[in-house]
């Protein structure tokens, strides 16, 4: 939510790019306290109006540890209402989150303690984009007959179903009678005038209909998108009591995530003609996050305390095609080199945002030259005198 700042041991985990997301998750098993401040907070907090602060667990004077897991299985779940409405069976999703912690004194090191924790969150066959509403997609895709140039009255009736007489489809709800060269067409067959590049896209990228005939909703294709989403987390902290009046701690955290997204990164797009998955079942968002904090507190006298802190958060997200070969020109025999002849190895995106314009929306990044990566670095140095 925009306007909320998330911090862990002073390290800012808020995405500076939009202030509406966090770069790293705060694992509740690794923190000793969480504080929420709204509006009325001290000068040591440079952000607002809401600041959520977590503090990583410190080491203990004796050894302690824990093992835990959280699990959920589909046999105990009911189906989503929207999935039931669309006649889609309950997904066999599974959640398993094993983890553990250990803390205690560092051997042979006086006044030095440590804490370490690790957790792995495995999510299998979950709804893409987090909900059934986004995971269930529909589209109006060309029929097998249309992909060979058959635009006869029967083919168009099968394609548009009960909407064949809808004036909104006036651009292609009647069979064509004249070809591009002015010649008469035989029963709406335009096979002789089909562009090889356009037909490679139409034949090779949209799936075939899943319904025998288009329904009253205007679609003839339905798809439920399920993905695997996994997150690994690690946290380590050391505390050093230099003296009763001089305290130091350092903390390092690491998180690695892998999230499947069948259409495009972050969201499920929509258009009047519907949408189809990126060939190869989309992309996998791989994220690596490093976060570190060091803090030194010196109690100079009973009324004067100084706190020096240094933090840094590093974020890298890579958008990797799940099946890169499915996006290459050779996969569909696409004959051109792109609009600018820039030696792209992929074929172009497919789709239109226009009203009742003809094809469903398909979006995929171009991996021809460089990997698609998002990098963010957020360092911070501060000093508080009380």
Overall mean pLDDT? 89
Structural class: mainly beta
Q: Kindly, what is the distance between the CA atoms of the first and last residues, rounded to a whole number of angstroms?
A: 32 Å
Number of helices: 5
Give a written overview of the molecule:
By secondary structure, the chain is mainly beta. 8% of the residues lie in helices and 40% in strands. The protein contains five helices and 14 strands. Strands 5-6-7-10-11-12-13-14 form an eight-stranded antiparallel β-sheet. A four-stranded mixed β-sheet has the order 2-1-4-3, with no helix packed on it. The longest helix is centred in the middle third of the chain and has 9 residues. The protein starts with a strand and ends with a strand.
Topology:
Blueprint: E1 4-8, E2 11-12, E3 31-38, E4 50-56, E5 64-73, H1 81-85, E6 94-105, E7 112-127, H2 132-135, E8 136-139, H3 153-160, H4 196-204, E9 221-224, E10 226-243, E11 246-261, E12 283-301, E13 304-321, H5 329-332, E14 372-385
Parallel strand pairs: 1-4
Antiparallel strand pairs: 1-2, 3-4, 5-6, 6-7, 7-10, 8-9, 10-11, 11-12, 12-13, 13-14
């Amino acid at each position: 939510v925009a306007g909320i700042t998330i911090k862990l041991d002073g390290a800012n985990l808020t995405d500076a790019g939009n202030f509406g997301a966090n770069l790293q998750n705060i694992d509740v098993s690794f923190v000793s306290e969480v504080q929420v401040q709204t509006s009325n907070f001290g000068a040591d907090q440079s952000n607002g109006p809401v600041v959520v602060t977590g503090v990583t667990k410190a080491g203990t004077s004796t050894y302690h540890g824990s093992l835990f897991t959280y699990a959920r299985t589909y046999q105990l779940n009911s189906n989503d209402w929207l999935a039931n409405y669309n006649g889609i069976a309950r997904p066999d999703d599974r959640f398993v989150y094993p983890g553990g912690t250990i803390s205690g004194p560092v051997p042979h090191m006086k006044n030095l303690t440590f804490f370490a924790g690790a957790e792995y969150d495995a999510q299998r066959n979950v709804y893409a984009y987090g909900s059934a509403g986004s995971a269930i997609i529909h589209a109006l895709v060309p029929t097998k007959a249309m992909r060979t140039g058959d635009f006869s009255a029967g083919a168009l009736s099968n394609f548009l179903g009960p909407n064949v007489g809808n004036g909104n489809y006036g651009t292609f709800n009647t069979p064509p009678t004249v070809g591009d060269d002015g010649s008469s067409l035989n029963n709406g067959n335009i096979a002789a005038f089909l562009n090889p590049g356009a037909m490679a896209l139409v034949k090779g990228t949209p799936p075939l209909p899943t319904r025998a005939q288009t329904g009253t909703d205007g679609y003839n294709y339905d798809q439920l998108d399920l993905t695997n989403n996994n997150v690994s987390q690690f946290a380590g902290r050391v505390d050093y009591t230099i003296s009763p009046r001089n305290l130091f701690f350092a903390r390092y955290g690491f998180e690695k995530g892998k999230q499947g997204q069948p259409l495009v990164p972050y969201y499920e797009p929509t258009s009047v003609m519907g949408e189809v998955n990126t060939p190869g079942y989309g992309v996998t968002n791989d994220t690596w996050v490093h976060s570190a904090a060091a803090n030194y507190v010196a109690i100079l006298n009973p009324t004067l305390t100084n706190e020096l802190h240094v933090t840094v958060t590093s974020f890298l997200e890579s958008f990797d095609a799940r099946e890169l070969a499915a996006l290459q020109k050779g996969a569909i025999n696409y004959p051109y080199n792109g609009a600018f002849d820039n030696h792209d190895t992929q074929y172009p995106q497919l789709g239109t945002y226009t009203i009742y314009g003809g094809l469903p929306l398909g979006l995929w990044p171009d991996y021809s030259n460089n990997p698609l990566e998002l990098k963010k670095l957020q360092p911070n140095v501060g000093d508080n005198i009380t």
